[in-house]
Design a protein that fits this description.
- The protein is of the alpha+beta class.
- It has a single domain, classed as Heat Shock Protein 90 (2-Layer Sandwich).
- It is built from three helices and five strands.
- Helix 1 runs antiparallel to helix 2.
- The longest helix has 19 residues.
- The protein starts with 8 loop residues before the first strand and ends in a 5-residue tail after the last strand.
- The relative contact order is 0.22.
Length: 127
Amino acid sequence: MADVDGRPVRLAIPAEARHLRLARLTAAGIAGDAGFSLEAIEDLRVAVDEVCAILIEGAGPDAEVTLEYRTDVDGLVIEGSCPNGGGEPDLHPVARELLAMTADEYEVGREGSSVVFRLVKRRGALP
């Protein structure tokens, strides 16, 4: 399975909560094209919302979230980053539980001055 014309899809949006729906919609559109079930697409939307909210927590007014969506034979990999001068990202226990239920794999951390994440959702996998 490949993205349109075999390349990853990249998205850059302002680091504001009102723009996170664009990240969710992009994930849902790619997953739908890749043959994900409706339940898996909804799980993916929730997971993307959670990790993106972590990225923008404490980000400056001019910060930008950058996302890359890639499909592979098993499913969808999404990686994101946002410049953020704070410390290590703090996952609230509820966010941690939601991600455990809706993503097959996820990592959230810091690379230099940015908060980053990697999220994997497999097509047909149970949450």
